[in-house]
Amino acid sequence: MEGRVLIVDPDASLRNKVQEVLSDLGLTVYTAGSFDEAHSFLSFYKIDHMIMDLILPDKNGIDLLIYTKQVNPSIKVYVYTDVKGATIERSVLKKGADAFINKSGDFRKDFDKIFFEIPQESVSQVEQIQGFKGTVAGVDIIDMVQALALMGKSVLLSCRDIKTFKEGIIVFKNGEIVDAKSGSERGKEALFDILSWKDGVFETKAYSEEPQRTINEPVELLLLNFARLKDEAEDRESRVAELTLADILKFFHAEIPGFIGSMIFDYEDGVPIAYETILQGKTFQASAALYGGIMKAAQEAMEIVTEGKEKRDELSEIIISDKNDHVMLFPLPVNNFAIFLLVSRDTSVQEVRSVILKYIPDVIKVLKEKKIS
What we know:
Layout: E1 4-8, H1 12-23, E2 28-32, H2 35-44, E3 49-52, H3 61-71, E4 76-81, H4 86-94, E5 99-102, H5 107-117, E6 133-135, H6 141-150, E7 156-161, E8 167-173, E9 176-182, E10 185-186, H7 188-195, E11 200-205, H8 219-240, H9 245-255, E12 259-266, E13 271-277, H10 284-289, H11 294-305, H12 309-313, E14 318-321, E15 325-331, E16 337-344, H13 349-368
């Protein structure tokens, strides 16, 4: 192998490692971290080989591949990326790439694959994605979304979860996700729901009407946010598996300024099942009594929430304040339970609400698993 090589990757550390390996072989090596930087090198130099990632900070990697082949049809382009999926591989090969290699973390080991092991695939062997049908098990739904985005497609991706029989659609326009629907949900929430399906079938279809835009974020950011939310949910599942209600109330104590006391109680039986106060060794009722008028407000809040089932199902808090304190009550959509909280008057109600709402899913899960102690 000889000539000039252009390495296009946003990871400067990787660029340096690749440059070192190829320079040792006597090659002239240039590096770029973006589409615009690569464009400059391709405009001024006759490049013989280009090693490029698909994810670039300024433009789509597919755009760089197409542009490169247009200005220099003889150049060898090797897509070297973390992006995985048979659908994406077919797409980049169809666009003219000479090889598609997933990064292993060791460029020296990948070197032989890039230049010696993977022949160019005939375009006639590459499937057309329009009208393609598949299963989530066979082609990952995220792979399909990335492929449609990279190819700049304007299609409707129809999906069905074979476990729940839920149906949904993701609408692409020029490679952007502009809309998604899943049951009664629409927009990003619907998109994230569909991306979470593990077993299903999908099909791409053309749409005849101009799609309505409910999503405005780039595909890369949407997928990153989905991955983050998925990781957070998995972390929460792992954490909740070891939590008790007493643990969660201690979090309230630690995270809420002006905390006086909190309890989770069964308002039909009228008994607390867990509580936490600032007065060590004192019950919730005793702690509340020491704060004067707060006990009356607490009783009033209990009377409000026990008036009817509709109150309990709303999951809308009740706030009663006097000159010194706030009493806040949060009915829970599980059995007859609610969260009861006493805080000082100078505490921000919004701050309290944000802490409580953060932990409500954990409280509900623990209650359903009856991990009370």
